[in-house]
């Protein structure tokens, strides 16, 4: 392995496991494990040279020849990159040596057809991308950069990560692929640095092997890069700088590490390692050359960049690899001893190829209690610890566990993080943000910008009747029909229930007008009753006048059903009362018009109209016409009666209670029938307006019907263009106006003669009687 301080821990974990096994009287009794250590440099030539030197023995490179006669190795542990494992695996496969790798899991090495003798100790990182995305979502980081080694494993991880990011609405700010070819790297090295440094993304994911060119690149980034949050894995060894300061680029880095328990006794073993105990240790020999490094120096006293006392993932895999070989040897030796004949005293000979059949299916629990399975298809469930790197002065660096991720746990229990334990980079006074655009607060929604990533957007206010009650909402939410948005449009408020009430100014005016006009009509009726024997009252069928005045009184009181809180009874009575009363009034006007015509025709020689007039036939028009309207009303009430409804759209802040017509068609049939009666009365009165009679009221009937028709013709467009309680107000106003038109046009002139010109009323009556006697004499 290429030598870093972390790699020295791999060696110590290897030695610790060997010594632990040799002290165990039950695992390999009467057998002591030994080992050889070689430094496989990261170049194909030097790696192959180290491999051949180990195979040949005696420190010489002699292909196809071994100088070692006794104590030959039966297995090899290799790390930390896939390149070293693949290069050595090609040669070791020729000799059928089992090769246990302690680097991160690589899909290429799991190809049994290409590398049948390689066993990977690290579990698959299938959920690593998901865990990183969960971390981004927790902190709201939606604009993230990626720095990835340009190798197959890293490219596969890139696909997994970008897929998860896309599914969760996180955008890739940039992707920097760091070449694995030295010439390509050095030609563009500083360009990578500047692009990442100048990016608006404050969060960058690093993925790749630390002893690749990516590691060489980041050794320079330690100087250039500040104000970034790095997310990486435990395989990425960034703790190599002696510049211990809060200003260090990697202070605050978040690392995903495979979760595992602490190996008992390992820390105590490290505390006991010193030059006096291991005088041939090359690392301690170098330390011994320093004046400040006494013979009994403890590794615990060294700064973090020199040595880390916490067992790394790689050391954990080395420890398990050694124990896997020991467990395999234990079972193999047991099988060989059973195959030997009794009394045979020679020790069984173990060949490397014999380990494969057992190694493929070996399972055991290590001293920490973790289950170890070399079969990659039966790897235990992945779990990740999230570590935060603290880089303090004087070498006081720490990796602090701040979170946990269990992919197969329930959604609300799979991810946890303790923000209060995280120490961010010095430039961040609070939890860092990494966004392409500022958050759209409540009341706004995201509007995508053409040609830019989905995370780059503009904030647009929510339209009317819609709200957004959270940040960065893509769509605003419509309020319910009985709610409306507040001024900030960040939550819905209940609408105030309202209707055309008596307390309402409009309702009060209409109610007062209705009562006043009904009282006025009652006064007119009283005048007519009092002067019932005067010629002007008698001459125009006073019975019909009484009926008309009574119907007008009720017509003026009818609007009171439209004012106030609606209920089922008033909704039904509104239309029925309105339709029937107005039918009575209009049909009475029609009867009066017919009476005028018959009265004139009966005085003409040869006409036999007198018996029709004397029989009271015109009066039968009223019940006949009213019966037709009542029939329409009954049909309406059976098919689709009016009901209480709420108008949620007319007023944005009000919920208006109204009476729904039930059937709009029947409502217009009601109006249409009234209109036909009115037009018939108007036409007949218009034709009879010039008939020579002293008390001919045809002209007044004509004007009354003209006013009546004008009011209701104007009513239709106004009614259809208004909403809510103003529709009710328009209908009430039309009822009052048309009724008032009938009252004024028909009865105002008569009241004038009765009250102000009473002598003329008597004179005109005497003349009328004289003319009648003359006609009878003739």
UniProtKB/TrEMBL annotation:
Residues 506-770 form the G-protein coupled receptors family 3 profile domain. It is found in: Cell membrane. InterPro entries: ANF_lig-bd_rcpt, GPCR_3, GPCR_3_9-Cys_dom, GPCR_3_9-Cys_sf, GPCR_3_C, GPCR_3_Ca_sens_rcpt-rel, GPCR_3_vmron_rcpt_2, Peripla_BP_I. Keywords: Cell membrane, G-protein coupled receptor, Glycoprotein, Membrane, Receptor, Signal, Transducer, Transmembrane, Transmembrane helix. Pfam families: 7tm_3 (PF00003), ANF_receptor (PF01094), NCD3G (PF07562). It is a multi-pass membrane protein. One of its GO terms (molecular function) is G protein-coupled receptor activity. The chain crosses the membrane at residues 508-531, 543-564, 576-600, 621-644, 664-688, 700-720, 726-748. The keyword Signal applies. GO terms for cellular component: plasma membrane. This is G-protein coupled receptors family 3 profile domain-containing protein. Belongs to the G-protein coupled receptor 3 family. It comes from Oryctolagus cuniculus. Its main location: membrane.
């Amino acid at each position: 392995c290429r030598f870093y301080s972390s790699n020295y821990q791999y060696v110590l974990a290897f030695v610790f496991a060997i010594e632990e096994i040799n002290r165990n009287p039950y695992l390999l009794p009467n057998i002591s494990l030994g080992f050889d250590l070689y430094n496989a440099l990261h170049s194909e030539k030097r790696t192959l040279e180290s491999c051949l030197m180990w195979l040949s023995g005696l420190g010489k490179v002699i292909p196809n020849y071994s100088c070692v006669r006794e104590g030959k190795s039966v297995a090899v542990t290799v790390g930390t990159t896939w390149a070293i494992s693949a290069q050595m695996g090609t040669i070791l496969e020729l000799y059928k040596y089992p090769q246990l790798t302690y680097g991160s899991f690589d899909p290429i090495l799991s190809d049994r057809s290409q590398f049948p003798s390689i066993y990977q100790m690290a579990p698959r990182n299938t959920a690593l991308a998901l865990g990183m995305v969960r971390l981004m979502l927790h902190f709201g980081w939606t604009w993230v950069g990626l720095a990835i080694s340009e190798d197959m494993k890293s490219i596969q991880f890139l696909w997994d990560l970008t897929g998860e990011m896309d599914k969760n609405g996180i955008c890739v700010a940039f992707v920097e692929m760091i070449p694995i070819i030295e010439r390509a790297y050095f030609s563009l090295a500083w360009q990578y640095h500047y692009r990442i440094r100048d990016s608006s993304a404050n969060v960058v994911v690093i993925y790749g092997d630390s002893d690749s060119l990516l590691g060489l690149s980041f050794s320079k980034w330690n100087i250039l890069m500040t104000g970034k949050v790095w997310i990486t894995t435990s395989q990425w060894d960034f703790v190599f700088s002696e510049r211990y300061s809060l200003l260090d680029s990697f202070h605050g880095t978040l690392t995903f590490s495979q979760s595992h328990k602490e190996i008992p006794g390992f820390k105590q073993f490290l505390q006991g390692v010193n030059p006096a105990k291991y005088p041939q240790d090359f690392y301690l020999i170098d330390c011994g050359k320093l004046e400040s490094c006494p013979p009994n120096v403890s590794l615990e006293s060294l700064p973090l960049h020199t040595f880390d006392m916490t067992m790394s993932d790689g050391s954990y895999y080395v420890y398990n690899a050694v124990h896997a070989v020991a467990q395999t040897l234990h079972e193999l030796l047991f099988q060989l001893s059973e195959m030997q004949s009794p009394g045979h005293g020679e020790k069984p000979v173990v060949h490397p190829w014999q380990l494969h059949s057992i190694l493929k299916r070996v399972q055991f629990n290590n001293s920490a209690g973790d289950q170890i399975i070399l079969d990659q298809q039966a790897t235990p469930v992945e779990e990740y610890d999230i570590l935060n790197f603290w880089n303090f002065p004087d070498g006081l660096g720490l990796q602090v566990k701040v979170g946990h991720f269990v992919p197969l746990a329930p959604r609300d229990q799979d991810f946890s993080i303790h923000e209060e334990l995280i120490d961010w980079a010095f430039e961040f006074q609070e939890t860092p943000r990494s966004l392409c655009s500022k958050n759209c607060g409540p009341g706004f929604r995201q509007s995508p910008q053409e040609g830019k990533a989905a995370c780059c957007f503009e904030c647009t206010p929510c339209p009317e009747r819609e709200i957004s009650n959270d940040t960065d909402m893509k769509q605003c939410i419509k309020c319910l029909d009985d709610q409306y948005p507040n001024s900030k449009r960040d939550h819905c408020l209940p609408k105030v229930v309202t209707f055309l009430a008596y307390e309402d100014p409009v309702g009060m005016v209409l109610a007062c007008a209705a009562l006043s006009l009904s009282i006025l009509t009652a006064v007119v009726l009283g005048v007519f009753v009092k002067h019932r024997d005067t010629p002007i009252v008698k001459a125009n069928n006073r019975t019909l006048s009484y009926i008309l005045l009574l119907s007008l009184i009720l017509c003026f009181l009818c609007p009171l059903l439209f004012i106030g809180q609606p209920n089922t009874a008033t909704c039904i009575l509104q239309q029925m009362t309105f339709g029937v009363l107005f039918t009575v009034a209009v049909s009475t006007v029609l009867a009066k018009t017919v009476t005028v015509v018959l009265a004139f025709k009966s005085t003409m020689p040869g006409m036999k109209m007198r018996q029709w007039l004397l029989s009271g036939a015109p009066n039968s028009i009223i019940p006949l016409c009213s019966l037709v309207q009542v029939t329409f009303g009954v049909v309406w009430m059976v098919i689709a009666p009016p009901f209480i409804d709420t108008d949620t759209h007319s007023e944005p802040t009000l919920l208006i209670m109204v009476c729904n017509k039930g059937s709009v068609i029947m409502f217009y049939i009601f109006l249409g029938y009234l209109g036909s009666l009115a037009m018939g009365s108007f036409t007949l009165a218009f034709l009879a307006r010039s008939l020579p009679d002293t008390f001919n009221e045809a002209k007044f009937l004509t004007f009354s019907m003209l006013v009546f028709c004008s009011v209701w013709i104007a009513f239709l467009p106004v009614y259809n263009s208004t909403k809510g309680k103003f529709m009710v107000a328009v209908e009430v106003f039309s009822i009052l106006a048309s009724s008032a038109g009938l009252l004024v046009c028909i009865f105002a002139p008569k009241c004038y003669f009765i009250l102000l010109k009473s002598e003329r009323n008597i004179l005109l009556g005497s003349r009328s009687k004289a003319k009648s006697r003359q006609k009878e004499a003739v």
